[in-house]
Amino acid sequence: MSQQPFLPFAKPTIDEATIAAVGDVLRSGWITSGPKVQAFEAQLSEYFGGRPVRTFNSGTCTMEIALRIAGIGAGDEVITTPISWVATANVIIETGATPVFADIDPVTRNIDLAQVEAAITPRTKAIIPVYLSGLPVDMDRLYALAKKHNLRVVEDAAQALGSTWNGKRIGALGDFVSFSFQANKNITSSEGGCLVLNNAEEARLAEKYRLQGVTRSGFDGLDVDVLGGKFNMTDVAAAIGLGQFAHIEAITAHRRELAQYYFTCFGSDFEAKHGAQLPVADFDNSNWHMFQLVLPERKDGKPARATFMEQMQERGIGIGYHYPAIHLLSMYRARGFKDGMFPVAEKVGRLIVSLPMFNVMTKNDVERAVSAVKSVLQQNK
Ligand SMILES: *Cc1c(COP(=O)(O)O)cnc(C)c1O
Questions:
Q1: Which in 19, 157, 306, 376 has the greatest CB count within 10 A?
Q2: Over 70: is that where the pLDDT of 105 sits?
């Protein structure tokens, strides 16, 4: 058994300056949305090339609000990927619209844009692409497709803060772009999210949807003209987000280095030798939110992933799985989705694992993870 401490697959790190900043907020007498939220939104907006940005209390509600701003609801169809956190499809149902899935590309594990085009009907109103592990889809092709079919795009960039497309930041281009600051993302606000919008009118609507539809004016003017919810970010969360965001460039650079070192340690014969699939070796666009393998099936018929996770845990290494195919979850099966509809997603959803990858991981941690992966796969041959 390993003498070294357990290596988790993800772990947030909050520096002392951020902890002190949270203390300042708690002592300030103003702990809900206030100056810290405004400062965080201003910094994010600058980062995304001056586009309007509003923050919320989760990445989930961020996407739902984008759909509402786009006017999407009952009778509309929205196309997304089966390989994402279930939130991505749930928000479509929340608006009253119908989720439609398109299978994924087996190499990138992102939505296959040819399959998206094939799934478009006269009722299709929007596409929600997901950048799994922070690897973007072909953004030129995505927006050409959206333009051709007159569709809105809500980018689920929950994992893609710091990712780029041909040198431009994800979020600095495109239509609606949604990010999450949940605890395991590259930067966190404990919980939270932000939406990059197109103009001041959309930003005003985002403010209404996040706080009961309220518009205030003068000293005591208050009106409600749309149904909003309670989705505002607190200054406590924004102070954490600001403290983390200060390190975004260093975080992305370090994760790219770790990813590169993973490839070095696995070696060029790893896939052929073990039958497992490495991720796309992209060190320019991806922010390496995760480092994911697709495992080989087992010859003895045992569930490959559960066995792998257990054997890695015995070696002191934490393994995540992101994600099981959404369309095979009970609530989606009850809506008519079945096995066999999206074969690539079904296989990846059954066999994908996330290896340790977090901001303060070391090269020694990568070596430990890789040698454990090799020994487990060797043992199961
Ligand atoms: C984290 C995540 C979400 C949800 O974000 P929350 O902030 O947890 O609501 C949605 N989609 C993807 C791809 C994610 O990784």
A1: 157
A2: yes
